[in-house]
Design a protein that fits this description.
It is found in: Membrane; Secreted. The protein has 3 helices and 8 strands; from the N terminus they run ββββββββααα. The longest helix is centred in the last third of the chain and has 41 residues.
């Protein structure tokens, strides 16, 4: 027995140049693929899409023309053969201008605003964590640098310190040279 025709055939995600057709098959039938026929309402040309080795229940229709009526049929494919075609589904693609008018680029929905807010919060959190990590790295570097300088065998600090304690450039015997005016 060949499978029954797909049921609940619907067209969704309708855009000016694309759409998605989806369908259901009866529960007890083993289906290994599908075949979709798509044609413009008043034109005899037909596009045929066939997929096997898949349990998918939807297919993207692409390269559609805007503001055009289409008819779609879906057939199920099993090992025994193809089902009869589903009931025809008629749909019309919108104009590109209609789609743009329905949602302006400047229009932002509340859902998108929430998503943007979450993104900003996440970005700020990452920046703060990175700054704290860098501050820690710099503090550790300074600490290690001081330890290395203190343990250096030719420590020039002591030589400079002892020479400056005993004399000044003005007077070699120590102390400042004072003059009476």
């Amino acid at each position: 027995d060949s499978p029954s025709a797909p049921v609940n055939v619907t067209v969704r995600h309708l855009k000016a140049n694309s759409a998605v057709v989806s369908w259901d098959v009866l529960e007890d039938e083993v289906v290994i693929g599908f075949a979709i026929s798509q044609q413009k309402k008043d034109v005899r040309m037909l596009r045929f899409i066939q997929e096997v080795n898949t349990t998918t229940r939807s297919c993207a229709l692409w390269d559609l023309e805007e503001d055009t009526e289409y008819i779609v049929h879906v057939q199920a494919i099993s090992i025994q053969g193809q089902s009869p075609a589903s009931e025809p589904v008629l749909f019309k693609t919108p104009r590109e201008a209609e789609k743009m008018a329905s949602k302006n680029k400047d229009e932002v929905t509340m859902k998108e605003m929430g998503r943007n807010q979450q993104l900003r919060t996440g970005e700020v959190l990452i920046i703060v964590v990175v700054l704290f990590m860098w501050a820690g790295v710099i503090a550790l570097f300074c600490r290690q640098y001081d330890i290395i300088k203190d343990n250096e065998p030719n420590n020039n600090k002591e030589k400079t310190k002892s020479a400056s304690e005993t004399s000044t450039p003005e007077h070699q015997g120590g102390g400042l040279l004072r003059s009476k005016i």
